[in-house]
């Protein structure tokens, strides 16, 4: 594994045969969730166990201590952030659901400029930055290669006077996230938005699985509670690792590859000329390009899934099934309602074919889906306390046999 700086990335793309559009991964994916939506720190700890037991599915550099990437997606721990901001910044947050938050990877030399630019973009979207939080991180816990490109990490909190109008607020939060990518790149300001959401938060970086929870102090605080912990251990088969390429992405954690990627991107770009939205109206074009430049196949998939949910108004399961349909055409045993859905979806979008396992969450839903090739492993256990454990393999969390009420291997379908 080779770790490159931003300048080396640009030179490699220009002067070598490497192309970021051809990047693929082979990774470890899993999640723990309380089906009843009961948050606890135990779920976060079980997510840690799951991630660290998939260390063999990740990769590391020649220093044997810089990973390809690892991360976790959780629900926003409202009580925890509320108390931390009150203690650290004397900042009082609005009610839960009326603010959005996320981690930003910034350049240490230009982070003040990035914060100002982000605040200006928020104002343009009718939002305001409530405050910034400096996370406590431990650089000594990661490898020397990863430290060379370690970003300046800040957590942003965003609100609006109209935040009680949840649909409008989330619509503008998504607009801000997309505008931050396009406009800040034009200003040559480094800013990667890990996520920006009213319901979920992502902690990730260029780590091995064993380093994630050691690096971010938040994750080991017993007051940090969530009903979801979606984890990912990255093994880049023909890619360069970087902090931003670590997963989960904003909604998806992915194991495998998208082998129809070039066609999927081209079709999505072609649709931009004819798409309309009752939500965004004439502002829809500000969300373009839907698929941002320089992403891996996982990142491209995540962009489109996020677009279908945020701009298209689809539920997350509906959007996932639209992009990754089953082999439905000749399945005589499929119920008529599902066949009809897939027939309709096929007129909206071509399949994103793998082989791939995709785990996804937006805070309301958490699930996983295999593409119709069905060539990536995925199993889940349901326990008597209504906790669901899904992973690329078994044995990642110790469960008493008597507590397991259901065990299922996913085969070309979603759960």
UniProtKB/TrEMBL annotation:
Keywords: 3Fe-4S, Amino-acid biosynthesis, Flavoprotein, FMN, Glutamate biosynthesis, Glutamine amidotransferase, Iron, Iron-sulfur, Metal-binding, Oxidoreductase
Name the record gives this protein: glutamate synthase (ferredoxin)
InterPro entries: ET-N_metabolism_enzyme (IPR050711), GATase_2_dom (IPR017932), Ntn_hydrolases_N (IPR029055)
Native source species: Steinernema hermaphroditum
GO biological process, one term: glutamate biosynthetic process
Cofactor names: [3Fe-4S] cluster; FMN
Domain of life: Eukaryota
Domain named Glutamine amidotransferase type-2: residues: 27-415
Pathway this chain belongs to: Amino-acid biosynthesis; L-glutamate biosynthesis via GLT pathway; L-glutamate from 2-oxoglutarate and L-glutamine (ferredoxin route): step 1/1
Organism classification: Eukaryota, Metazoa, Ecdysozoa, Nematoda, Chromadorea
GO molecular function per UniProt: 3 iron, 4 sulfur cluster binding; glutamate synthase (ferredoxin) activity; glutamate synthase (NADH) activity; metal ion binding
Pfam families in the record: GATase_2 (PF00310)
Family: Belongs to the glutamate synthase family.
Catalytic activity, EC: 1.4.7.1
Keyword Iron part of the UniProt annotation: yes
């Amino acid at each position: 594994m080779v770790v490159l700086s931003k300048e080396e990335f640009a030179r490699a793309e220009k002067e070598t045969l490497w192309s970021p559009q051809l990047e693929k991964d082979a990774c470890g994916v899993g999640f723990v969730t309380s089906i009843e939506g009961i948050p606890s720190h135990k779920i976060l700890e079980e997510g840690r166990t799951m991630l660290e037991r998939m260390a063999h599915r990740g990769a590391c550099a020649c220093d044997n201590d810089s990973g390809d990437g690892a991360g976790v997606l959780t629900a926003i721990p409202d009580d925890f952030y509320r108390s931390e901001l009150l203690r650290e910044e004397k900042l009082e947050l609005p009610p839960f659901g009326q603010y959005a938050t996320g981690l930003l990877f910034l350049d240490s030399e230009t982070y003040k400029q990035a914060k100002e630019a982000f605040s200006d973009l928020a104002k343009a979207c009718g939002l305001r930055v409530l405050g910034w939080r400096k996370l406590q991180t431990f650089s000594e816990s990661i490898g020397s290669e990863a430290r060379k490109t370690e970003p300046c990490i800040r957590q942003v909190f965003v609100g609006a006077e109209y935040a009680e109008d949840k649909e409008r607020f989330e619509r503008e939060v998504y607009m801000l996230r997309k505008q931050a990518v396009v406009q800040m790149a034009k200003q040559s300001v480094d800013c990667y938005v890990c996520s920006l959401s009213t319901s979920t938060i992502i902690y990730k970086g260029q780590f091995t699985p064993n380093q994630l929870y050691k690096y971010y102090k938040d994750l080991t605080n017993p007051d940090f509670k969530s009903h979801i912990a979606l984890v990912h251990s990255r093994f880049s088969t023909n890619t360069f690792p970087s902090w931003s390429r670590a997963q989960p992405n904003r909604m998806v954690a992915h194991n495998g590859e998208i082998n129809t990627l070039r066609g999927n991107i081209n079709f999505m770009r072609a649709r931009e000329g004819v798409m309309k939205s009752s939500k965004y109206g004439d502002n829809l074009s500000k969300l373009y390009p839907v698929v941002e430049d320089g992403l891996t196949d996982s990142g491209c998939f995540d962009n489109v899934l996020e677009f279908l949910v945020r701009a298209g108004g689809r539920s997350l399961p509906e959007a996932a099934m639209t992009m990754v349909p089953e082999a439905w055409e000749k399945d005589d045993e499929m119920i008529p309602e599902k066949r009809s859905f897939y027939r309709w979806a096929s007129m909206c979008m071509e399949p994103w074919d793998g082989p791939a396992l995709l785990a996804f969450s937006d805070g309301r839903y958490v699930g996983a889906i295999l593409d119709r090739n069905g060539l990536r492993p995925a199993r889940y256990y349901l326990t008597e306390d209504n906790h669901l454990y899904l992973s690329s393999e078994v044995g990642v969390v110790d469960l008493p046999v008597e507590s397991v009420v259901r065990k299922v291997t996913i085969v070309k379908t979603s759960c």
